[in-house]
What we know:
about 35% helix; alpha/beta; Spore Coat Polysaccharide Biosynthesis Protein SpsA, Chain A; two-stranded antiparallel sheet
Amino acid sequence: MTLRTIAIVPARMNSGRFPGKPLKHIDGMSMVAHCYLRTRLCKSLTKVVLATPNEEVADDIRRLGGEVVVTPEFDMCNDRIAWAYEKIAEADGPYDLVINVQGDQPLVHPDMLDQIIAAHAAEPALDSSTLVEKLTLIEEFHDLNRVKVLFRDSDGGLIYMSRAPIPSPKKHGVLPERVYKHTAIIAFKPAFLHQFLDFGMTYNEEVEGIDYNRVLEMGRSMKVLVTPIVSDTVDNAEDLARVTKTMASDPLWNAKAYGRGA
Length: 262
């Protein structure tokens, strides 16, 4: 089953934790450009669009030949995604799947997107899904910027997302054998995305600052897929320095698969 799939990359300059984040440079290219161009390498996608309220971010992607939707200034990225999707669908017609690839993931790999698209193609009834990767550092386990994810072994159904260290071990200072962190790549059927937004914010998601827990409060399910690919999310200057170092040995970047000389 071939799905008509759009990836939307949301990005805004007034990040509370790291203002100006999308245009921070990594080896001569903005962070959001790395994310956008690497997403565009996925051949399973029908279209890739940047969604931003900021003209300077829009211009950065337009210069690279990218497609942009300038949105109002929303607080939540899923509101931005939904608004942009409606504008695109008016012109293109409906898509089967919308993937939110958050613009602070400069190391996103096209295989990650292939994995999530394949899951929806194999399970047409699936409303939403997300990717996680194994967490291996105890410092990250206790880092409130890293969202930890619990899911069922039986079918990958989401149990809970938290900034707290979960599953919480009985013995202090121990990193459990299986701990997973969220990659901030989320797929929705368009109809479910609108149901998700119409439901409104819930208490638990507001406390945690994680809106995907809303799916659970709705009595619905989100499938969790484990990716073997190690990526990274930039939330602060320390993350940016670490990702810049990683980019120096990144296979896609060094092979000139995008950007410089591509």
